[in-house]
C-alpha cells in the first residue's frame, strides 16, 4: 500500500490482525492479573520504582501489572479501542508507536516519579489517546481529525489525569505516556514526509 495513503487511514489495513493483536495483549493483561491475584499480589511491587538502579527490568513490566480487577478493567476498554485505531498505519508502525509510548512513560516515571511502585497500562492509554489526537494534525487528514474529535469526546476528560490529583494514581505515568504519544505522532509524520519526498539524483 502507498505510504501516503497509509498515513491517512483511519481503519487498519488488516483489521482482523489488528484486533487479534490488541485483544491478545489485553487478554494477556488479564492472565497476568489472574496470576497476581492467585499469588496474593506478588507482582504489585514489581512496578517502576523511581531512581532505583537495582530494578531497571521493572521498566518492562509496569504496563503489565495492575492493582486489582477494577484497575485493569478501567484500562481494558480504552486499550482495545484506542489500540485498534492506533494500528491504522499498519502493524509494524503500531509496534513502533507502542514501544515509544511504553519507554517514554516508564523512563519518565523512573526519572521524575514520586516514591512507590508505579503500575498499570494507563500510560499506554494516554499515549494512544494523544497519538490519535496529534496524528491527524500532522497528517492533515480530515478523516483522522474527525476520528480524533470522536476520541476526544469519549476520553478527552481523561487528559486531566496528567495533572496531580487523586492519591495513589500515577499521574506521572499518564503525563509521560501522553508525551510519548506526541513523540510517536511526530516520528510517524517525519517518516511519512521522508517517504513522500521525491528522490534526488546526482551525476
Query: Could you estimate the helical fraction of the residues in percent?
Result: 55-70%
Distance between the termini: 31 Å
What can be said about the biggest beta sheet? none
Could you say which overall geometry the principal axes of the C-alpha atoms support?
globular
* Parts with pLDDT < 50 across at least 5 consecutive residues: 199-203
Number of helices: 7
Structural category is mainly alpha
- Tell me which oligomeric state these chains represent: single chain
Rg result: 18 Å
SSE string, helix = H, strand = E?
HHHHHHH
Question: How many distinct beta strands?
Answer: 0
Strand content: under 5%
Average residue pLDDT? 85
Describe this protein's structure:
By secondary structure, this protein is mainly α. Helix content is 63%, strand content 0%. The protein has helices at residues 3-7, 15-38, 69-86, 91-112, 122-139, 142-155, 171-196. It is globular, with a radius of gyration of 18 Å.
Task: Give me a quick take on this structure.
The protein is 63% helix and 0% strand. It has 203 residues and is an all-alpha fold.
Comma- or semicolon-separated keywords:
203 residues, mainly alpha, 7 helices
In terms of topology, how is this protein built?
Blueprint (H helix, E strand, L loop, with lengths): L2 H5 L7 H24 L30 H18 L4 H22 L9 H18 L2 H14 L15 H26 L7
Helix pairs in contact: 2-3, 3-5, 4-5, 4-7, 5-6, 5-7
Amino acid at each position: 500500500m502507498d505510504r501516503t495513503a497509509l498515513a491517512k487511514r483511519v481503519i487498519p489495513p488488516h483489521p482482523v490482525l489488528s484486533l487479534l493483536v490488541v485483544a491478545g495483549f489485553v487478554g494477556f493483561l488479564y492472565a497476568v492479573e489472574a496470576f497476581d491475584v492467585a499469588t496474593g499480589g506478588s507482582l504489585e511491587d514489581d512496578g517502576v520504582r523511581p531512581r532505583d538502579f537495582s530494578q531497571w527490568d521493572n521498566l518492562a513490566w509496569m504496563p503489565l501489572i495492575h492493582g486489582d480487577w477494577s484497575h485493569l478493567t478501567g484500562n481494558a476498554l480504552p486499550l482495545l479501542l484506542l489500540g485498534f485505531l492506533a494500528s491504522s498505519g499498519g502493524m509494524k508502525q503500531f509496534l513502533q508507536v507502542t514501544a515509544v509510548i511504553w519507554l517514554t512513560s516508564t523512563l519518565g516515571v523512573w526519572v521524575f516519579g514520586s516514591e512507590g511502585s508505579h503500575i498499570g497500562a494507563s500510560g499506554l492509554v494516554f499515549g494512544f489517546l494523544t497519538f490519535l489526537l496529534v496524528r491527524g494534525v500532522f497528517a492533515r487528514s480530515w478523516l483522522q481529525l474527525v476520528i480524533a474529535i470522536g476520541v476526544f469526546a469519549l476520553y478527552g476528560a481523561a487528559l486531566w489525569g496528567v495533572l496531580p490529583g487523586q492519591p495513589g494514581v500515577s499521574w506521572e505515568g499518564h503525563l509521560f505516556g501522553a508525551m510519548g504519544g506526541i513523540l510517536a505522532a511526530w516520528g510517524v509524520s517525519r517518516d511519512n514526509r521522508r517517504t513522500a519526498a521525491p528522490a534526488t539524483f546526482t551525476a
